[in-house]
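User: Structure tokens for both sequences below?

Assistant:
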Amino acid sequence: MSKWNMIVDAAKCENCGNCYLSTVDEYTGNDHPGVAAEMPLHGHRWIEILKRERGQAPMVDVTYAPVMCNHCDDAPCMEAAENGAIAKRADGIVIIDPVKSKGQRQIVDACPYGAVYWNEEKEIPQAWPFDAHLLDQGWKHPRCVQSCPTGALRAVKVDDAEMARIRREEGLEDFRPDLDTRPRVHYKNLGKYRYEFIGGTVAAARDGIEDCVEGAEVVLKYAGDELARTATDNYGDFRFDGLRAGSGVYAIEVSHPDFPGASAQAELGGSTYVGTIALGS
């Protein structure tokens, strides 16, 4: 049986907000019986774009991660719901019934992704229903996918075995693997969102003028063991990524055939720019 899945590529998201706006346009003032009551104009973000900023000037990057109802196969909201207020369709889409769910605020609290909102006026919980009504009309993908200009969102309808293969081949992962809810929203390129980096700049004096050094070899060590090595770019910059926050003190060793070597240390709390390492000083 083919089921719907969403693939989110965090490396392609630029926070344009089109996915959110398309959802507002589809559901604000529009009632879709059996799928979703109309969405309030303010306060709800059924597709929320989270932001993660790392580093310090001049070495800073920003990553965005759209988060929405994950249409989990082991959905906590379904366990919290009463009187059949939530159902999972055969195609994998989770629907909060806009009639049966009235008054069941516990459904909002049950979602560990924060993707279910409380409609105060109608007294019902609401979440993004994968645009099920449009898919039932023959649409090939939800509106958020249609509106994404960078291809950060991709909807696929495949059986579970094929989705498992796609996950392996594309390196997809869950946004919150610790929750073990078996979500149908899968993420790609989350490294910058989850991990930290150590970066810096290498410079040296030539004829009394300090300038950046391209092609210097930089080695990162932890407890005396080499973890990685890289070379500086044409601006003299280097970066080691994929490090865990709060993981301790790292040693940085820099060498270049034209200059005496240098070293530095960095204690990693969050992402860290160690500044300029001067060769030969």
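Moving on to the next sequence.
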Amino acid sequence: MNTKIDIKVLENEHLLFFNEYVELLVNRLTHANMTLERDLGNPDWPKNALRLKNNMEAFKNLVNCAFNLESLEEDLIIATADTINKDALYISNGYRTGGGAYIVDTNIPISNALNVPKDMYMLVKRYNEDWKELDPFEREARFHIEFIRIHPFEDENGRTGRLLLNYNLLRQNIAPVIITTDLEEYYHSYIQNEDVDGMTNLFKIQSTRENEVIYELFERYNLEEKSELKK
């Protein structure tokens, strides 16, 4: 499976293509995230328009940080969730201070609110230190499953986690991952069963597919650019 891309080279030497691809990725990932959470609705409705805007802004902020930060930081995680939730009624900034014992409509247990700061600190520490030498997709799978099961925020934990997944992959010069609705059953079962191997494989397959998308788009971009030069 080929998931390695020269996205830093694209950014440095083909900035126009890079910017167009990132804009497309932001739109596709936002749409996939909101569809997966069953709350896309009619984008013309004011509430959903704001949700779309905030999700797009959150990922654009992460992309801007992707090639400048060497590690995953808690402040960035919190800022991402706060951006996604900033127009949601009754949702507080930062880590949750209450909530139930399970993810809504599941039997998946989540961290007690009092333990969230400690659990997140340890998760980020393991990611940056203990898991640093793991296969990158296994590292992301471990982080993602544990992040969702900690459920550190009052709302939008799934979307925040999937944005962080792609931020982490881009930082490592690896093609991003989009979880589409046809993969929803597998994705949720891997979280439910803490199946790191299954999630690792899912991320690897989707990253390979996205790598193909990038190169197909780049090929078309080159052809169009050459065609313009001939005119």
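User: Anything stand out in the second?

Assistant: DSSP finds nine helices and no strands in the chain.
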